[in-house]
Amino acid sequence: MKVLSVNRSLVRLVEVNGKEVPTGIYKEPVPAPVMVYPLGLEEDGQADLKVHGGPYQAVYAYPAEHYAHWRQELNRDHLEPGTFGENLTVSGLLETEVCIGDVHRIGGSVLQVTCERIPCFKLGHKLNRPDILKPFLQSGRSGFYYRVVEGGMVAAGDPVEVLARDPEGVTVRALLGMHRLHEGTPADLRRALKIEALSPLVRSEFEERLAKN
DSSP string covering the chain, please? Predict the structure, then answer.
């Protein structure tokens, strides 16, 4: 398990359906080590802090293993690291194995998994596929967000060390299923709510859903 590429981008304006919108999705690989702070990478930006960024969505990781699938789906010969807006393009960290609450040491930083990534229309615009959002989620290839437990330098080539596994064992893929794919039972939601590191955005939605049952 390791980092293949560290990617970042400041917020820029792009035209979507005739309107200028801010976005930080155009991440590009960085050749040198980058400092990770509590709210993300140095000189990296997120535009809509309601759904991206903040302490529980500070760093976005995406498995490089998925790139072959998307090259075929998008009919592309090549996709650069950072294509999906991820800060860390990683290997060996699949959504079916990584659990919410797991703690990883990456370079000089310590990061904790908090939730899956739910894409917005800006991903569809970047890929020139406005219809890609539903297939992206249904594929289970969402990637995942970290919160920063300890800041530090990260760089391409850094190994990923698992410091702790969350006892609830709720994988990123399982959380995605509960959150957006109509999977799971009320008992599954209650189990996810036991995870201290769970993103507050997901937590509030699960609590609302359980309150209605």
Answer: -EEEEEEE---EEEEETTEEEEE----EE-SS-EEEETTEETT---S-TTTS-SGGGSEEEEEGGGHHHHHHHHT-S---TTTTS-SEEEES--TTT-BTT-EEEETTEEEEEEEE----HHHHHHTT-GGGHHHHHHTT---EEEEEEE-EEE-TT-BEEEEE--TT--BHHHHHHHHHSS-S-HHHHHHHHT-TTS-HHHHHHHHHHHHH-
In angstroms, the first-to-last Cα distance of the chain is 40
Q: What is the pLDDT of residues 16-72, one digit of tens each?
A: 888 899 999 999 999 999 999 999 999 998 877 766 789 999 999 999 999 999 999
Cβ atoms of residues 179 and 207 within 8 Å: no
User: What tokens were used for 8?
Assistant: 């970042």
Amino acid at 149: V
Answer positive or negative: Cα dihedral of 165, 168, 169, 173. Answer: negative
**Which positions ≥6 away from 46 have C-beta within 8 Å?**
11, 24, 40, 52, 53, 57
Decide if 3 contacts 155 (C-beta within 8 A).
yes
Tokens of 79: 């996709």
